[in-house]
## 1
Amino acid sequence: MKRVICVAAVARNGVIGDGPDIPWSVPGEQRLFKEVTLGHTLVMGRTTYESIGRPLPGRTTIVLTRDRAWRPAPAPGSDAVLVAHGLERALMKAALHEGEVIIAGGAQVYAAALPLASEQILSIIPLDPPGDARYPEFAEKDWEETDREVFDGFERVWLRRVV
């Protein structure tokens, strides 16, 4: 099985979103998301996909949804979007595509995938915004920090599962 990596921007208070919005704007953070995910397979929930509004170039996108009738709107000239109706099915589809499996949100998808993840790449945003979507809690003892980069307005932390 391919490595499963959770990539998220997380506020100090655990918030990752407020409705379809990200409750902050931190220059450079999305550029780093692109660098980390380019060439890999993104797995994300339907709401996250719809908030982005299109497939991200240079990445295979698999959208998780319980709605069996849901289909992505056609996006001319862009990469295809695959649909899966469960995380296990999404991981099976991801195995057929290049790169690692990148879990890209939202909260329910992170919660389902975190027990399977071998790594986390978290952008820590030094804010405590209100929001209705939170990154799942995890036992820090089960993870070791392998790298930390400090940027203007946030830190990026790389974690690897140790158990």
## 2
Amino acid sequence: MREKLRVAAYAVCVRDGRILLARSPAPDGTPEWVLPGGGMEHGEDPYDTVRREVTEETGYRIEVTGLLGVDSTRHVLSGGRPPRRTDHHGLRILYEGEVVGGELRYEVGGSTDFAAWQELAAVPGLTRVRLVDVALRLWRERPPHGRLEDRPLPRRMNEE
């Protein structure tokens, strides 16, 4: 089985009771809300990644105001040509950010197609990725070690 590690950085930008989110198509094509952010390029610092990705996906420039935590996921994926199983490990670094410039716009030709401020109270009713909920809990609870206590550790593949 092939192993793949993807490291990404995301921003939680909240102001006036609203959170900045981007919209991305799920694998089945259904639009879902995601945090602005994305994968690190080789040799790139995650601090620079989150600033670059937020600008690409929303048009805003941000100042990173804090490190909220790190989230880790692991999934076995199948697909490709020829079909192949992949042990995918996602490591997501979550920052708090404040918009300091730019204008809201949508990404063209990227992984997202729309960006908007969403009311915090409306987030539970949105079609969204799990990371949005994890990030909001980290933002609200601010655990000193940057990890939510009730989040299970990713399982090792040989424990399945």
## 3
Amino acid sequence: MIFFQKDEQLENLGNGILEATWATFPTLARNQVALTWIVYDPPVPVNTGGALTPDAFWNHSVRGFTYRGVERIYPASVVKLFYLVAVNEWLEKGMSNNSQELTRALRDMIVDSSNDATSLIVDILSGTTSGPELPTGPFETWKYQRHIVNRYYQSLGWEEMQTINVCQKTWGDGPYGRERAFYGEMLENRNMVTTNAIARLLHSIVGGVAVSSGRSQAMMSLLKRSINPDDLPTDVEEDQVTGFLGSGLTPDAQLWSKAGWTSQVRHDAAYIELPDQRPYILVAFTEGKANAKSREILPFISQRFVEAISSF
């Protein structure tokens, strides 16, 4: 059973936003977008500093809307959210030791979306390293170890996590050696997630129940984004705000997010607070070369959801 309640008001608003998006961006096919929208009605159970126990939080009903929210889609760097939570679980359980390098890598993975930092994080999580191809026996052991993050999420018992695959590093040029072999000949083992799975994971972080209250708050600190253009870096290809959901917000909004992009996809997952409005989670994935290049589609979608939430 999905973690949110479907609602006629949100269905009408969400479907209207999708129709407006397709009318404005004819390159975006109906099977090239997926999204999940979670609205927090009063009393708001999230971003409270962990005021609710996990049982109280998960028993608190929330409303949501989803379109193609169960479709498996390549997540690009949004997958780093899964590694962020997993590392904190490992640290909490004593399965990994903290260090300056781990702290630096976590920050760079989320704040800057560094693929090199993510490589270290995946190595720490799995006890594996990249390198040349391996003989069959050692490679089978290596592959089993690399699936440890998948086993962790499946152990949570969340329906949304049963179809995802989160075992691969993120790359600039692509995988080589044992990493390429691990992808499979037809790339059948690449990372795949759903917008519903991302929304539930972000819901747990914002709710203060991902791993622990303190660790959830530390994760929120890494996810916090400034939407002030003067604060955005100018020396990167993508800053995770421009051309993403943050670009569609009003200047007084607060944003916590993780974006992902390649030549084929442009995604964002965000928790958003607007003054005097209901806070909400919005996860929006788009696919296709033309759509991945567009810096207008996700901001347009975000603007429409700002208008929708302001109409309540």
